[in-house]
Specification:
By secondary structure, the protein is an all-alpha fold. 56% of the residues lie in helices and 0% in strands. The protein is elongated and about 45 Å long.
Length: 102
């Protein structure tokens, strides 16, 4: 099962068969870069909306602090052979010190 938008696969010249065969090409790399960019845009929008909440309400959205580091981790290596990870200590530090912008 390939959970990537079919229209994006076509636009970037990537087939499901290539992905299932483990073939990484420039089209797949570009498609994933576009998805990361969309995710960054959605994150910025979400953070903008959180500015209207109280600090107690924003606490429920603290896991958003990990989105940017994971998106950065997704930029390196072969996307079909590498799991995006961030250092567990960095993850804890980020959650413990993150402050939403007002």
């Amino acid at each position: 099962r390939i959970d990537l938008p079919a229209d994006m696969l076509r636009r970037h010249g990537v087939t499901q068969a290539q992905i299932l065969a483990g073939t990484t090409n420039e089209g797949l790399t570009d498609l994933l870069a576009e998805l990361r960019q969309r995710a960054r845009g959605a994150l910025d929008q979400a953070l903008g909306h959180l500015a209207t909440l109280t600090s107690q309400q924003r606490a429920a959205f603290l896991p958003l602090a990990l989105v940017a580091p994971y998106l950065a981790a997704l930029e390196t290596g072969d996307p079909l052979r590498r799991i995006a990870e961030i250092n567990p200590l960095h993850r804890l530090w980020r959650l413990g010190t993150y402050r939403f912008r007002n």
